[in-house]
Each structure stands twice: as C-alpha cells, then as structure tokens.
Amino acid sequence: MNDLQLEMNFSRETSRNRLRDTINRGEFVLLVECNSPGRDIDPAAAVEKLAVMEKAALESTELPVSLAITDGYRSLKSYRAVECAAALSPENRDRHLVYLSGRDVDAAELKNLSSLALDAGIRNLIAVSGDAARGESVKETRKRAFTESIEMLNVWQNRNHPALQIGAATNPFQYTAYTLIPQYNKMLRKIHSGAQVIVTQAGWDMLKLQTLRWYLTLRDLYIPTVARLVLLTPERVEKILAGFYPGITISPDFRKILDKELRFSLAQFEAAQWRRLELQAAGCRLLGYSGIQLSGIDHPAKLKIAVERIAAALKEFTEFDHWLEEYNSYLAMTEMAPFCGSFHLFDRVLHRAYPEKPPRLNEPEPPAVSGAEKLRLALRSFFFPHADRQPPENRRLLKAILCGCRSCAECRLPQCMFTCPEHCPKRLANGSCGGMKPNGMCELSTAECVHRRITRLAHYRGEGGNLEDLILHSGRK
Ligand code: SF4
Ligand code: SF4
C-alpha cells in the first residue's frame, strides 16, 4: 500500500483515546494542521517532517496540542494521511486527528485504509468527501472515485471500536438560505451516520461559528465542535482570493482590512494576524467550541509561538462580554459576508454567549423556482414516481431525455426532487460538499450545485424537512 515504514500497534493499549478524553474533560484543544507530505520527498523525510511537528506539539505545557493530519489536500501526489500517522511513534497516535479524503477511494481502499488506521492505533478519524484536484475539469473529476464522508462514517461505525472517535466536516460560512441549508442538512446526515465530532471549514466569521453552536444546541446535539482557523500570510490571502481553496472566502470588507494591514509593513500585517487569531481562538472557547484546528503553522518555532499566544488569549478573555467588546473594536464591525442581504438562521447572534431561551430559527424566503423548473419537476414526478423501487435501467431513454440520466446503479430520483444526483461532478448523493461557491454554483463549474437545486425544489414543494435525515446510497456500479 505504501512505502512508508509503518510500526503497528497490536501490543499496545487499544481502548485508549487521549484526544477524546481531553475534549470530554472540557479542555480546550489546539490541533495543528499538517498536510500529508508530498510524494516528491523521500518517505523517511516525509515522516520526519511530521515527527518534528509532533514533538513540538507534545512538548506544550500551556495547553493540549495535537496534530490534525489532512489527507492529500488539493494534491494528487501526497502520501495518505493515515499512512503518515501510522508511521509516527505508536505511543501517541491516539492523540492526533487524522483525515481520510474520499477522493480516489473505492470500497476496497476504504476497507484497507480503515483497517490500517485501527490496527496502527489511530483513534480519531475525520471523513471528508475530498476536493477536486487542482486544475482538473469537470469531466476529469467525474472519472475519479469519490467516496462520500457518510459512507466512510457508516463503515467506521460498523467497526464498533470502543476507542474510536469519528467525525466529519461542515461549512457554516454560507450566506444565503439555499446555500446554508444544504450544508446543515448534510451535517445532520453525518451526525445520524455516527459523526461524534464536527470540524468546520476555515473561516473568520464568528457570527457563523456561533450560529452553528446555537443550531446544534437547539437540536439537542451536544457533540464537540472544532473551528478551523487560518493564520494568514499575504500569499495565502492571494491564493484564497484566487479560489485556490474551495469553500474558503474573504469578504470585500475583510479584504480592505487586510490590505490596510499590509500597507504599513509585513511585520504589522503579521502582528495583526496573530492578534486576530488570539481573538478568534478565545472567542471559539467562549462560544462552546472544544478546540481549534489551526492551519498556517509549518514550523516548530511557529507552533511554539501559536501555543503561547493562544494560551495567553484564553487567560485574557474569560468573559464573553469582554471578548466581544475587544473583538468588535479590533475588527471595527467588519462585514464578513461576501455580499449584502445575507440570510441568518438566528437573530441577535453574537450579542451573548448563549441564547436566553431556545432561539427561534428564521424561516428562509420561499425559493425562486422558474416556470421551466416547475414544468420539469411536474413531468419528472409524473413519469418516475417510483424510479427508486425499479431497476435503474427502467425507462432509461426517457430518464435520459427528461433528467439527463447518467446510467448509475441505483436510481434515487424520487428522493432528490427528480434531480439526478449523478450530475454532481463528485457524484455525491447526500448533500453539497464544502466547496460550493457563495453564490450556490458548483465548486467546479458555473452550473448550480446539484444539492442547492434539490434543496430549493424541496422547499418549493414544502418538503425541505425531509432532507435532514435522508441517507442515500451511492450510485456506483
Ligand atoms: S439516479 Fe440519475 S443516473 Fe441514476 S438511474 Fe436515476 S436518473 Fe439515471
Ligand atoms: S455539485 Fe455541489 S456537491 Fe457536487 S461538486 Fe459541485 S459544489 Fe460540490
């Protein structure tokens, strides 16, 4: 499977999960994000690179620090995160969070990687469906296997391992009703599929981070959440603005602030980023997050600074009102939404740490559905009301004409508002990926995200609630 030297963990304590224990004790955790190293470097050097960061992380005395090893992030030429984690020292593997991306993973590979993780003593796994590879077209992406995070969670849950903590990601940084609701629906489906911890997409909007916490509380879902934060550099800002990281956005207002910070000097810019990070980290703890996953820390010395600064910020801000005053004055009430007129699930977010009484969910505006869409929906529901109970080849030609059928192995038209889920370039059936653009377009094209369309149509028919816990199989043959 790999050329990394793996040291298995059969003889060691298998029921131990120290990251989970730390979170359960209520200690605020810093997870330092390390991308799985590229295959262009020697296997020993790849492991050494992570081992150096691990050593620095575990030396922290100020707060609990672990690694979050991400899997082939945007790159096709990386070692798998599970392989890398399995090559680190065996006694600490239960302290780290390890990602598994579904890109290029079929059922057999999922089984292999899951067994490798468990046998090696990895105890904290995060399932992500995976990004499209940089520069690849929709057509090229379609040819790749993408195993959905929900499928991975189901496999892991079935392993029934007492020490295993499994989780998933969500993108709460969406600003219209019909881009936000698919993200929340998918998160609920992941939780129903066994996710025990939720990690957010990277972002800066504390209002959206609080919305997520309030939403989970409202639904009586008391599961740990980790906010993914980024220590910005001018290069990283440029890359985000250029769309290098799908699903991560910088609003025009925030960009103005960053430009202003950079205008003085690089040192000024860096100081501003550290202060922003401190404020965000302290805010996350006060909002009820169990920790943060920090990206942009690529050296042990930087990790040490991050630990010191975050630990100091946690001591500085112990009261929500004190933190909010400082946060607002520092960011001068910057609008983090990429456009005006954003949709918010709750009113009066970011005024208090916890709602006085259960917050009321704002109803979305009725969705815009064109006459052509209504006609298509009516025709498709007339011709294919039971397509899910029939062999997929049934009425294939008519399905191709009316729905653009792509000939998969399991028809799910009735559950998907008669919108073929196979039109998603990653063939995801259970909701939008984190890369959907703020305007609801697909990560990979100028077409509307299939799952935004399904959500719009479901709300148009008054069936939006049905999407919350519907879990669909893949259409893979
Ligand atoms: S889900 Fe789509 S591709 Fe699969 S059988 Fe139905 S219409 Fe065809
Ligand atoms: S259609 Fe939606 S879920 Fe599929 S790749 Fe595009 S943005 Fe992601």
Give an overview in words.
- The protein is an alpha/beta fold.
- The chain is built from 16 helices and 8 strands.
- It has an 8-stranded parallel barrel, surrounded by 5 helices.
- The protein starts with 17 loop residues before the first helix and ends in a 17-residue tail after the last helix.
- The chain binds iron/sulfur cluster (2 copies).
- One iron/sulfur cluster binds at residues 424-426, 428, 432-433, 435-436, 442-444, 449-451.
Bound compounds, each kind once, are: iron/sulfur cluster
Q: What general outline do the C-alpha atoms trace? A: globular
Relative helix content: 40-55%
> How many DSSP E strands?
8
Biggest sheet details: 8 strands, parallel, barrel
Would you tell me the overall average pLDDT?
93
If helices are DSSP runs of H or I spanning 4 or more residues, what is the number of helices?
16
Class inferred from helices and paired strands: alpha/beta
From the alpha carbons, calculate the radius of gyration and give it in angstroms.
22 Å
Lateral arrangement of strands in the main beta sheet: 1-2-3-4-5-6-7-8
Topology, please?
Elements: H1 18-24, E1 29-35, H2 43-58, E2 65-70, H3 81-86, E3 97-101, H4 107-120, E4 124-128, H5 138-143, H6 149-159, E5 165-170, H7 177-192, E6 197-202, H8 206-218, E7 225-230, H9 234-241, H10 252-264, H11 266-287, E8 291-295, H12 300-316, H13 320-331, H14 371-383, H15 396-403, H16 450-460
Helix pairs in contact: 2-12, 7-16, 8-11, 10-11, 11-12, 11-13
The structure holds iron/sulfur cluster (2 copies).
